[in-house]
User: What shape does this take?
Amino acid sequence: MRKRALIIGGGPAGLASAIGLRQAGWQCEIVELTTDWRPTGVGIALQSPPLRALKTLGLFDELIRIARPHPKLDICAADGRPSSRSARTVSASRPA
Assistant: This one.
């Protein structure tokens, strides 16, 4: 009998969980409140841990193909004041 998983939420964590479980032989069902599965127009900044996870799932190369690296990243305090800036970008040959 095949193992089954019910995944609550079709966001990045839910979808990554479903992919990983499926690759391990599980049957997955994802439930999501949103009925319109499409890009929302927001950006997602991925740093080292999620990039390593995507590499483990076999999705890193496709991500690099379609991703748009940030030329800089401003980190701000809760009141909006800039607290630091990063100019580092990620490349396919050096994934953070």
User: Anything to note?
Assistant: The radius of gyration is 17 Å. Residues 4-34+42-86 form one domain. The mean pLDDT is 84.
